[in-house]
Design a protein that fits this description.
It contains 17 helices and ten strands. By secondary structure, it is of the alpha/beta class. It has three domains: 32 residues; 225 residues, Spore Coat Polysaccharide Biosynthesis Protein SpsA, Chain A; 118 residues, no CATH class. Strands 3-2-1-4-9-6 form a six-stranded mixed beta sheet, with helices on both faces. A four-stranded mixed beta sheet has the order 5-10-7-8.
Length: 395
């Protein structure tokens, strides 16, 4: 500890007094700077956890307790409560009153997590952002483990981790989902990570990246990465953009997130094959526009264009012209949602098709014919049923 003596033990002349006063002032200035740095460090948490909540009264205490009980203390928790039919807001207000690190904001009911996630990101002051849903939890002491690994390899835009699935529908609680091969810890660019995941999940889909990734906050701000308001399953639209834009991606494989699959959630309460068609059209429309913009930039990796063309055309062909969907969903409904997808014309779709295979470009011709020409809609459906999909099975 440093002691500053207010009165010197021996007399000082004028010059000595001036020198001593200048020295003391310098010490005071240095101490003020140090106190300012410490204060800034105290108000800037390491993690900002953003938690959307709506009608999660049975689960939200466990969610917030899993944060509050962490020994790692450098965090803030931004809780967005949309108008609920239960006591969700009352419960989260209790936590806000108990600990100033909990900050609650409210909004109207929107039908998705997007609004709360966007507002929470804007409010966040931490170095890194974690998105946690109000009916999920995080593992004990997981924040300490994450902070230790991030500090060992700081500055990446994305730190993909793993989730542990608690499936109330099947009773299984031990399934671990990780997008990256076990033991794979190499640093990647966003382009390289995009190609890796597209190859690894060629015939399926990666896990929801929003929940299992720690994001550098400044990266989210720099690229204005937001979820589309009111969109369900917004992760499928957000993730490809975030991953591609990242300069540094470091997989951590840390299974810190406990993901609950339950009845009554947005994912499970929907019934009918066409329930999410409007959302799917909006997601694809956004992604086609993103590709069209990025593919014109210098240095764009054409392999990514091919990977996106393969995945997104497959989705369009299967969801709007697959046998089961054609049987269940009236043509008028499928046409209405395709009108959303192509509301601005086929320019972005055509840009994507430049990277597609000849067979996919042929199939796309029949998609456009289905939308443009009422007399060819039956022909388009027959093409997919009797030519395109049987051809896929053969190859």
């Amino acid at each position: 500890m440093c002691h500053i003596i207010a009165k010197p033990p021996f007399p000082l002349n004028a010059d000595a007094r001036k020198t001593a006063t200048s020295g003391l002032q310098h010490i005071a200035n240095v101490m003020a700077i140090c106190y300012t740095i410490v204060a800034m460090d105290e108000v800037k948490p390491f993690f900002s956890l953003v938690i959307p909540c709506c009608d999660v009264e049975p689960y939200v205490r466990a969610c917030l307790d899993s944060v509050l009980e962490q020994k790692f203390s450098s965090w803030e928790c931004l809780i967005g409560v949309e108008t609920s039919k239960d006591d969700t807001e009352k419960i989260v207000r209790e936590y806000e009153a108990r600990d100033s690190r909990f900050k609650v904001f409210t909004g109207p009911r929107s039908g998705s997590c997007s609004a709360s996630r966007n507002t929470g990101t804007d409010m966040a002051t931490g170095e890194y952002v974690i998105f946690l849903d109000g009916d999920d939890t995080i593992e004990k002491e997981s924040l300490s483990r994450l902070a230790e690994q991030i500090r060992a390899r700081p500055g990446a835009d994305l730190y993909p981790c793993a989730i542990v699935v608690h499936n109330e529908l099947t009773g299984r609680n031990d399934e671990i989902r990780d997008n990256y091969p076990q033991g794979f810890s190499y640093e990647l660019t966003g382009s390289a990570a995009t190609l890796l995941l597209e190859e690894r999940f060629r015939h399926s889909f990666p896990c929801p990246m929003l929940q299992l990734t720690v994001f550098r906050r400044e990266f989210l701000v720099e690229h204005d990465l937001k979820c589309i308001y009111g969109l369900r399953h917004q992760d499928s639209e957000f993730s490809p953009r975030a991953l591609y834009l990242a300069k540094r991606v470091i997989p951590l494989h840390e299974p810190f997130y406990l993901y609950r699959i339950r009845t009554g959630s947005v994912q499970t309460k929907a019934k009918g094959a066409g329930y999410f068609y409007k959302d799917l059209a909006i997601r694809l429309k956004s992604l086609l526009a993103f590709h069209a913009a990025k593919s014109n930039e210098p240095g764009f990796d054409r392999r990514i264009g091919k990977a996106w063309a393969r995945r997104w055309t497959t989705t369009i062909f299967a969801k709007w012209f697959g046998k089961g969907f054609v049987a269940e969903i009236p043509r008028e409904e499928r046409l209405a949602t395709l009108d959303i997808l192509f509301a601005d014309g086929f320019g972005d779709f055509d840009a994507l098709l430049k990277s597609a295979s000849p067979v996919r470009r042929l199939a796309a011709y029949f998609v456009k014919a289905f939308v443009r020409n009422p007399s060819r809609r039956g022909l388009a459906e027959k093409f997919f049923a009797h030519i395109y999909f049987p051809l896929l099975k053969r190859f």
